[in-house]
Amino acid sequence: MAEDLRQKALSLEVAKRYSEAAALYRQIGLSDKAAYLFQKAGCIEEAVEVFVAENRLNKAGKVYEKAGQIQKAADCYEKGKDFASAGKMYQKMENFAKAGAAYEKGELWKEAAKAFRKAKQYARAGALFKKAGDEIGAARAWAALSEDDSSASVGAKALEAAASALEASGDFVKAADMHLKN
Questions:
Q1: Which of 22, 30, 128, 130 is disulfide-compatible with 38, CB 3.0–4.6 A?
Q2: Which pTM does this prediction carry?
Q3: Across 30-39, 70-79, 114-123, 151-160, least confident range
Q4: Residues 6 or more apart whose Cβ sits within 8 Å of residue 112
Q5: Which of 55, 52, 64, 114 is closest to 89 using CA atoms?
Q6: Is 84 helix (H, G, I), strand (E, B) or coil?
Q7: How far apart are CA 141 and CA 165, in angstroms?
């Protein structure tokens, strides 16, 4: 029975009746082949459905990404715990806060910090740069916070944090400048 279906699927594939062939390949358990042919036929949702049914969400994300459906790709990657790919998709959409959050879930500290800096969430970026061991990046983020936030207490704290980060990196001249601004 399975061999008959395989032969029929192959005949349909040769005849370029891809979606029909894909359905038969899926029926006999050849899910990768089925998803590939669904994609070739332009049946993106069917291809994704094959992978989602098997809880292969990162593969589903790749299908959506290839089809240019970036938001759906990001959702699949996040559900599949591929936070690096999810972050990349959010960056493509210029949703830097969501990109930062995805990278942070994946413990990709430096990528998260860069995304939060682009989202103008300087305090969060500074903390993550520090967590990543990038004292200069932390200092730059906190310096940007001091310029961006008009309240004197936040600005002073941000400059102090920037100065401390610069001291920790060994850049005493820039640290002194930060102290003088404070």
A1: 22
A2: 0.78
A3: 151-160
A4: 87, 100, 101, 103, 104, 128
A5: 64
A6: helix
A7: 10
Using CA atoms, how far apart are residues 174 and 78, in angstroms rounded to an integer?
39
The residue-averaged pLDDT of 44-54 equals 96
Q: Are 103 and 79 in contact (CB under 8 A)?
A: no
> Rounded to an integer, what distance in angstroms lies between the CA atom of residue 30 and that of residue 50?
10
**Gyration radius (Cα) of the chain, Å:** 25
Give all strands (DSSP E) within 22-165, no chain letters: none
Three-state SS for 102-142 is HHHHCCCHHHHHHHHHHCCCHHHHHHHHHHCCCHHHHHHHH
Give residue-wise pLDDT tens across range 3-40.
898 999 999 989 999 999 999 999 999 999 999 999 99
What's the rounded Cα separation, in Å, for the pair 86 and 106?
Answer: 10
User: How many Å apart are CA 62 and CA 131, to the nearest integer?
Assistant: 30
Q: How far apart are CA 105 and CA 109, in angstroms?
A: 9
DSSP character at residue 151: -
Q: Tell me if 47 sits within 8 A of 38, measured CB to CB.
A: yes
